[in-house]
UniProtKB/TrEMBL annotation:
Catalytic component of a P4-ATPase flippase complex which catalyzes the hydrolysis of ATP coupled to the transport of aminophospholipids, phosphatidylserines (PS) and phosphatidylethanolamines (PE), from the outer to the inner leaflet of intracellular membranes. May contribute to the maintenance of membrane lipid asymmetry in endosome compartment. Coiled coil: none annotated. It comes from the Eukaryota. The keyword Cytoplasm does not apply. This is Phospholipid-transporting ATPase. CDD domains: P-type_ATPase_APLT_Dnf-like. Residues 32-90 form the P-type ATPase N-terminal domain. Its cofactor is Mg(2+). The chain crosses the membrane at residues 66-81, 288-311, 342-361, 863-884, 961-983, 1003-1027, 1039-1062, 1068-1094. ATP binds at residues 407-409, 531, 572, 595, 626, 706-708, 794, 800, 824-825. It is a multi-pass membrane protein. Its main location: other.
Length: 1176
């Protein structure tokens, strides 16, 4: 704490260096001149509050909301000046809202505290003073050597020192960090790998210099300086040496590591940063409506204040005999009196702003989000995954989507790769039943029949080859063919980062792939499904990757075990789009094997069948296959020494290491000899075509953003229905300059105008997109808006986000939704209005950073068409209804001022003012907003066109808002003037027929009149909610009719008993006296019917004369639902009879609708929809 204060005052500034120096085991120099750097402890703090700051911090955050701050001001005004209502009327609702929100946030933070305490208190073992010491996780310091056993989680970010293996390697899984379940290999530097005991580690004298903490999980630069026999040895440290907090040790007995980042500086903690806040269109509309109502409130207060002083201009009304002014009032400033009266009217009318709207909306969103997780239709049984809601603030936004941006691999496809074809030295092969089948003649082949390569073991049998009728070649070509295939598949088996969980090598690789051997004995794990598919394919051909042993890679070729020394790995990165390995063969020769996209491999090749392979790669892509090219080069001893030196210098650099490594990689990966190309298939997920077609019918434009090459992406787009065969495909690809790109865009725009009748699809690649977005955004957007479907290929992750950003800020400002499954999709998921993560095989980063997560793309249709539709209708009605019932509530109060000389007399009792929004009218709308289903879910999903009825925020348009507002004002006028004219002169409410009773007010006075208005209002707004409800459950009946009953019961108890704790009780016996009058009951019923009858008539005429598609679907689905319910309630024998009758009726209706006499298109639609409902 003292250090923090000193830092804030500037006396003890935190370290500003770009690097940190860590002395292993905290063995600092003994010369006395060294001042150790100060690092934070290992406590993880995910909680937001403490016991001391919860109240002030939570209150500060809540009063940042405009509505809460507004009601706080009103409450303070009521305390400071003489206002017509008690401060309790504003203070109690405000206290209720603040308290409910604080309890919710406090409970969530308490859970976070418990989680933090559990993590921080976990036991760990640390090497101190030559022995193992058991301590708690929070006590780990930077520099401590920590021992981790198998299946334990790393408590801090550690640099691996040693393991129980001789090579110092270990396997970890980072599933809790990025969702990848594959095993990752980490290695220690050779000098520390041999220190496998506590005693030997106690002799280690070493220093680590590394970068300061950063959030990137896959980036780490540092070096270790080891002192041995008075000599310093420098070793580079990279991501392969770093064990991240939250990862778990697997397949390794124990490891020792030194803590370099602790607590909130670990990479896991740095990734806790919250996402940018997204606001829904409904919330923006709600804020607009609040501003309008605030203007109405201020206008009413100003009008009332002006009319008060206008009325009091006459002397007889300025100071009547019954309301004499005090001396202080007579001498006070007129300006101050005007302001005071204005504030008093503001307080009187402030209930037109519904404070409970916010808490109701929060509860509706929070509770409503559970329905997505509970929906069994969104549950994927194979992976045991249900839909997840990461934020409930955007539920209604699911019903407003206009653009869907989707990734391809793993989103539209399964991300389960199967090796299908390859090209080796210009010859194309297919895999059929574990055999390679050549398409066309091989060199010197006498015919064009298919050539079969069962395996390399059969290739080795030259007599078999020469006698084969389908593969007749010369011995020299046979030997060359064997060498080419052997080298190609060895490159496939060595150039990867695949791991093996269980190694059993006996009997593997001795011949053709046997289905009863390898799958049960070798299980490969890879971060990329492509790599796994290729290694498995090589094993089927006969070159089996066995695994890593120390610094070697073991491969079994034709039953013979070969060990290749792994010298260097040139890791894959998205800029190079390739990876390489440098290995030393058993013969001592050194090879570089490279694998990557054809755009990154072919330009660096100087030998091999480049043009033939390029043609084959394009052919593979047209089939929708994913392609990779393989190349190699043999290194001389001199070349390798130069490479080794450059790599060491780049990897030990602390400044600009990535740039230096990129330069070295470019120097190494050139002058390659092309071996061939591979093609793997990633099949489409189930019902992708139907889902995309449904989105299109709903008026949603679908864009596919992928990193795949042009031909592959177009092929998949055609197969999944994104592009139609009849669609005119326009292309903006391979643009080299701004001028060329602009001219091409103009040509495309002209073609679209000329062929405006047919649908167009646009294909654009990443390079051309960069040029288009640089200078020609408007022209590019014009072309895109006129295309039914857009496909962007060769896209970098940030380009995906830029495209979405471009659409978001376009003049129409459409609502966007992004769908992806990998870490490269996170940027576009966070950029879009709604982000959907697919819980696929590329990790869980997309799912963790999304707003919603689903297991399959097909679930998107129900998420939008059903849940999105329901959520939007529910919350739109909730918002409109809240404003409506508050207009009904406060307008009679405004009208009443004309009858009391604007004396600021309140019409309602203060208890009624307080409980109107909290108790009497809150539950029906809350339950409606949770359970309402205005159309059957099956109809919504089968009729995507119904989604158009709610698009563009139509239910919260100005027209709809004005309708509800005018409806509220009209009902309020009926409440007030109906009560005044019907009951105002009714003597049946007077005791003993007398106008006045001694020492009592007139029986039909202020409180009786106000109570009558309030009673009619509570009944009317509650029944109005009942009329809006289409889906009735027992809960709806309970809260709707229960709210009215509760109001009557409460009023009877409140006004029927003299409560000792109430200073004055104006309402005593008023409600009972009111209900004892038959004319009062008649007036209540008449006013309620009058208010709602006009609304009912309007709805009936609109439905009959101008029904929307939604209303048509409601009528037909209700007809079928009623028939089903009626049958379900009958005994079995009668139910069968009813079914047969309904079946006959269905046949008659459908057949008559399709006869030539049926000229009405409406009848055809009705029959078609009825038939669909029947089938469902």
């Amino acid at each position: 704490m003292w250090r923090w204060v000193r830092q804030q005052l500037g006396f003890d500034p935190p370290h500003q260096s770009d690097t940190r120096t860590i002395y292993i085991a905290n063995r600092f120099p003994q010369n006395g001149l060294y001042t150790p750097q100060k690092f934070i402890d290992n406590r993880i703090i995910s909680s937001k509050y403490t016991v001391w700051n919860f109240v002030p911090k939570n209150l500060f955050e809540q009063f940042r909301r405009v509505a809460n701050f507004y009601f706080l001001i009103i409450f303070l005004v009521q305390l400071m000046i003489d206002t017509p209502t008690s401060p309790i009327t504003s203070g109690l609702p405000l206290f209720f809202v603040i308290t409910v929100t604080a309890i919710k946030q406090g409970y969530e933070d308490w859970l976070r505290h418990n989680s933090d305490n559990e993590v921080n208190g976990a036991p760990v073992y640390v090497v101190r003073s030559g022995g193992l010491v058991k301590t708690r996780s929070k006590n780990i310091r930077v520099g401590d050597i920590v021992r981790i056993a198998k299946d334990e989680i790393f408590p801090a970010d550690l640099v691996l020192l040693s393991s129980d293996r001789l090579d110092g390697s270990c396997h970890v899984t980072t599933a809790s960090l990025d969702g990848e379940t594959n095993l990752k290999t980490h290695v220690a530097v050779p000098e520390t790998a041999v220190l496998q005991t506590v005693a030997s580690l106690d002799t280690l004298v070493a220093v680590i210099e590394c970068q300061q903490p950063e959030a990137d999980l896959y980036r780490f630069m540092g070096r270790m300086i080891i002192t041995q026999q008075m000599e310093e040895i420098v070793r580079p440290l990279g991501p392969e040496s770093l064990l991240l907090r939250g990862a778990r040790l697997k397949n390794t007995k124990e490891i020792f590591g030194v803590a370099i980042y602790t607590g909130m500086e670990t990479k896991m903690a740095l990734n806790y940063k919250s996402k940018s806040q997204k606001r829904s269109a409904v919330e923006k509309s709600m804020n607009t409506f609040l501003i309008i109502y605030l203007i109405i409130l201020i206008s009413e207060a100003i009008i009332s204040t002006i009319l008060k002083y206008t009325w009091q201009a006459e002397e007889k009304w300025d100071e009547p005999w019954y309301n004499q002014k005090t001396e202080h009032q007579r001498n006070s400033s007129k300006i101050l009196r005007f302001i005071s009266d204005f504030l008093a009217f503001l307080v009187l009318y402030n209930f037109i702003i519904p404070i409970s709207l916010y808490v109701t909306v929060e509860m509706q969103k929070f509770l409503g989000s559970f329905f997505i997780g509970w929906d069994l239709d969104l549950y994927h049984e194979e992976s045991d995954q249900k839909a997840q809601v990461n934020t409930s603030d955007l539920n209604e936004e699911l019903g407003q989507v206009e653009y869907v941006f989707t990734d391809k691999t793993g989103t539209l496809t399964e991300n389960e790769m199967q090796f299908r074809e390859c090209s080796i030295n210009g010859i194309k092969y297919q895999e059929i039943n574990g055999r390679l089948v050549s398409e066309g003649p091989t060199p010197d082949s006498s015919d064009g029949n298919l050539s079969y390569l069962n395996s390399l073991s059969h290739l080795n049998n030259l007599s078999h080859l020469t006698t084969s009728s389908s593969f007749r070649t010369s011995p020299e070509n046979e030997t060359e063919l064997i060498k080419e295939h052997d080298l190609f598949f060895k490159a496939v088996s060595l150039c990867h980062t695949v791991q093996i969980s269980n190694v059993q090598t006996d009997g593997i690789g001795d011949g053709p792939w046997q289905s009863n051997l390898a799958p049960s004995q070798l299980e490969y794990y890879a971060s990329s499904p492509d790599e796994k598919a290729l290694v498995e394919a090589a094993a089927r051909i006969g070159i089996v990757f066995i695994g890593n042993s120390e610094e070697t890679m073991e491969v079994k070729t034709l039953g013979k075990l070969e060990r290749y020394k792994l010298l260097h790995i040139l890791e894959f990165d998205s800029d190079r789009r390739r990876m390489s390995v440098i290995v030393q063969a058993p013969s001592g020769e050194k090879f570089l094997f490279a694998k990557g996209a054809e755009s990154s491999i072919l330009p660096n090749c100087v030998g091999g069948e480049i043009e033939k392979t390029r043609i084959h790669v394009d052919e593979f892509a047209l089939k929708g296959l994913r392609t990779l090219c393989m190349a190699y080069k043999q290194l001389t001893s001199k070349e390798y020494e130069e490479i080794d030196r450059r790599l060491f210098e780049a990897r030990t650099a602390l400044q600009q290491r990535e740039e230096k490594l990129a330069d070295v990689f470019q120097f190494i990966e050139k002058n390659l000899i092309l071996l061939g190309a591979t093609a793997v298939e990633d099949r489409l997920q189930d019902r992708v075509r139907e889902t995309i077609e449904g989105l299109r019918m709903a008026g949603i434009k679908v864009w596919v953003l992928t990193g795949d090459k042009h031909e592959t992406a177009v092929s998949v787009s055609l197969s999944c229905g994104h592009f139609h065969r009849t669609m005119n495909i326009l292309e903006l690809i391979n643009q080299k300059s701004d001028s060329q790109c602009a001219e091409q865009l103009r040509q495309l725009a002209r073609r679209i105008k000329e062929d405006h009748v047919i649908q167009h699809g646009l294909v654009v690649d990443g390079t051309s997109l960069s040029l288009a977005l640089r200078e020609h955004e408007k022209l590019f957007m014009e072309v895109c808006r006129n295309c039914s479907a857009v496909l962007c290929c060769r896209m970098a992750p940030l380009q995906k986000a830029k495209v979405i950003r471009l659409i978001k800020i376009s003049p129409e400002k459409p609502i966007t939704l992004a769908v992806g499954d990998g870490a490269n999709d996170v940027s576009m998921i966070q950029e879009a209005h709604v982000g959907i993560g697919i819980m696929g095989k590329e990790g869980r980063q997309a799912a963790r950073n999304s707003d919603y997560a689903i297991a399959r793309f097909k679930f998107l249709s129900k998420l939008l068409f059903v849940h999105g539709h329901f959520y939007y209708i529910r919350i739109a009605t909730l918002v409109q209804y809240f404003f409506y019932k508050n207009v009904c509530f406060i307008t009679p109060q405004f009208l009443y001022q004309f009858y009391c000389l604007f004396s600021q007399q309140t019409l309602y009792d203060s208890v009624y003012l307080t409980l109107y929004n909290i108790c009497f009218t809150s539950l029906p709308i809350l339950i409606y907003s949770l359970l309402e289903q205005h159309i059957d879910p099956h109809v919504l999903q089968s009729k995507p066109t119904l989604y158009r009825d709610i698009s563009k925020n139509r239910q919260l348009s100005i027209k709809t808002f004005l309708y509800w507002t005018i409806l509220g004002f009209s009902h309020a006028f009926i409440f007030f003037f109906g009560s005044y004219f019907l009951i105002g002169k009714d003597i049946s409410l007077l005791g003993n027929g007398q106008l006045l009773k001694p020492n009592h007010q007139m029986m039909f006075g202020n409180w009786t009149f106000g109570t009558l208005v309030f009673t009619v209002m509570v009944i009317t707004v509650t029944v109005k909610m009942a009329l809006e409800t289409h889906f009735w459950t027992w809960i709806n009946h309970l809260v709707t009719w229960g709210s009215i009953i509760f109001y009557f019961v409460f009023s009877l108890f409140y006004g029927g008993i003299l409560w000792p704790f109430l200073g004055s009780q104006n309402m005593y016996f008023v409600f009972i006296q009111l209900l004892s009058s038959g004319s009062a009951w008649f007036a209540i019923i008449l006013m309620v019917v009058t208010c709602l009858l006009l609304d009912i008539v309007k709805k009936v005429f609109e439905r009959q004369l101008h029904p929307t598609n939604t209303e048509k679907a409601q009528m037909y689905s209700n007809t079928v639902a009623l028939s089903d319910e009626f049958i379900a309630l009958q005994p079995l024998s009668r139910a069968r009879n009813q079914l047969s009758k309904l079946s006959l009726l269905k046949q008659i209706q459908v057949s008559s609708a399709w006869t030539p006499c049926a000229v009405s298109q409406k009848e055809k639609q009705r029959a078609h929809l009825l038939e669909e409902c029947w089938n469902e």
